[in-house]
Structures are given as structure tokens and as C-alpha cells.
Amino acid sequence: MSNVQSPAAIPAVRQKSRFRPAVVASLVGPVAALAISGCAAVLNAATSGNGYSVVEDIRYMPGDSGTYDLYIPATVTPDTPLVVFVYGGGWDSGSKDLYLFVGQSLASEGVIVAIPDYRHYPEVRFPGFIEDAAKATARIARTVRGGAYAMPGGSHPLFLMGHSAGAEIAGLLATDETWLAREKLASQNLAGFIGLAGPYDFLPLTEERYKLIFPEEQRAASQPVNFVDGGEPPMLLIAGADDTTVDPKNTRSLAAKMRASGGSVTETIYPGVDHLGAITAFATAIPLNDTAIRDETLNFIRKNAR
User: What is the pTM of this model?
Assistant: First the structure.
């Protein structure tokens, strides 16, 4: 398959529907599942369609989970940064359709955003979802940098960004060069990693379902903190002090390892912000939580785009 789709294979550019119902579960089960899906429904319904366009369901691999949505700013240059956002959902659920508000939040500020789906447990266990994210990232980077969907080809500095379980996935791609290398994309191609409320150092496992998702012999390989050696891209690590789903000590641990290895890292723990607040803070139509989280993220992207 070529890096850039032929015209016949390119889906039509259209305004993304405000919300498609999806079965979602988070790290803390059905109650949080309703919270995140219900919150996304409200946010997406209120999200503006101005200043960007969306190409939906672009295929990067076979299967129901093998597509991504691409959010394109109204104005794109060869240097416009590209963010691949990996959503959370406890590694066993989630949908790109829930995150229109995130795509809009960044695209409206001149950032290209790609949000891929990926396979979840029980269809796959670790490292299946990591492999999918690596495939998606490599395909997205080559497609955008090669010129597609009326965008000019160019350097398009590449950032990985994730929330919750998605931050573990994106964080592992940023720290363990094995995964992107398999897709012929060097980790040196990354301009930065943005982790929101991520689990990066979460062993030992205590819950049975996580023991099923992460086979014992591979658990050490699932921890981004285990691969930091100072060669990682710059990192922005954000967590909420009130997060009871993913302990903020995960953020502190990864930041400390980065500093000890001589890497570039900015660590911010926001008071009064919980687990969902780290991502709903990106909503622009309905301001939620600390809006400084979005501002800090955009400043990090602009500073490190190269």
C-alpha cells in the first residue's frame, strides 16, 4: 500500500457528525463510562465546525478499528504541526468518535490532528494496541508529510498525545523506539510527547482484568518509565491533583526519570482537576476545568515544532 492514498481511495471531506453513540468504558467501570460518553456527547454537540474540516474514516489497516479521522485547519503550510491523539478507555474500549472536541480544540488553533481507532481487549492483549498505534502513527505521518487532502507536503513536526490509557500507548511509542522502528519511522522523527493523566509506571497489577490485558511475561515492557534513556523527544506531562483513577505519581515518576536521564520534560500537576478534567479542559464551547491545560499544550507544540 502506498504512503499517500490515490484520489479514488480518498474519503470526501465533510463536517464530522457531532456525536455517534458508542459503547465506552473507562478505567473505573460503568459509572465512569457513562460520565465520559455523556460528557463527550454534550461537548461534541456544542463544538463549532468553523475554522477546520474533517476527513473521516481514513484506513490505515484492515478491520473495524483500522481507521482514523483527520482534522485539518483552514490554513495549512508545509510546517504546520501534526498531532496524533490516542484516546483512553482502559485498553478495553473507547472510540475516536468521542473526541471531536479535542480535534476541534487543536485544529482551530492551526494544528493538524489525527485520531485513530485501535483494537481493544479482549480482541487483543498487550502489545496489540501498541502495534496498532505504531501503524497508525507511521501511516498518518507519511500521508500528511507526503501531501494529501489538499494539504501541502512538508516537514509537519510530529507530536504524540494521549489521555489515560492512550497516554500509556503514546508514551510507550515515545520511549521504546522498537514499535515505531518496526513501521520504519524513527523515534527521532518525534517533535514531542504530551501525556494527560497517563499510567506510565503502574506495576504491580492488582486488578484481575488488567492482569488479563497485560500478560505477566510482558508487563515490564508495558511501562514507559522503563525505557527512558535521555534520547526521548521533549515531554509535556500533565495530571490532575484530584485524579483518583490514575495516580499522579505516574506522572511524577516518568518526569523524574526524564530529568535523571537528561531529557527535556515539563511536569504540571493541576490542583482541583480530576481524571476526566485533564481532557475535558480542551473543550472550547463549554469551558470545563482549568483552561491553562489547553494553553500549556498549545504553547508546548508551538515551542517544539521544528
Answer: 0.89
- Residuewise pLDDT in 10s, the chain (306 residues): 223 333 233 343 444 543 332 322 333 333 344 456 778 878 887 777 789 999 999 999 999 999 999 999 999 999 999 999 999 999 999 999 999 999 999 999 999 999 999 999 999 999 999 999 999 999 999 999 999 999 999 999 999 999 999 999 999 999 999 999 999 999 888 999 999 999 999 999 999 999 999 999 999 999 999 999 999 999 999 999 999 999 999 999 999 999 999 999 999 999 999 999 999 999 998 877 778 999 999 999 999 997
CA dihedral 160, 163, 168, 170 (to 10 degrees): -10
User: Nine-digit cell at 215?
Assistant: 500478560
How many Å is the maximal CA-CA distance in the chain? 50
Please give the DSSP secondary-structure letter assigned to residue 188: G
- Rounded to an integer, what distance in angstroms lies between the CA atom of residue 284 and that of residue 24? 23
The Cα–Cα gap between 152 and 193 comes to: 24
Whole-Å CA distances, 8 to 4, 139, 144, 255: 11, 18, 17, 45
The Cα 89–Cα 101 span in angstroms is 17
The three-class DSSP label of residue 138 is helix
Question: Amino acid identity, residue 83?
Answer: V
Query: Contact, 54 vs 71, CB < 8 A?
Result: yes
* Rounded Cα distance, 242 and 3, in Å: 43
Pairing of strands 13-14, 190-196: unpaired
32-36's contacts with Cβ under 8 Å and 24+ in sequence apart are 32/245, 32/275, 32/276, 33/93, 35/276, 36/98, 36/276
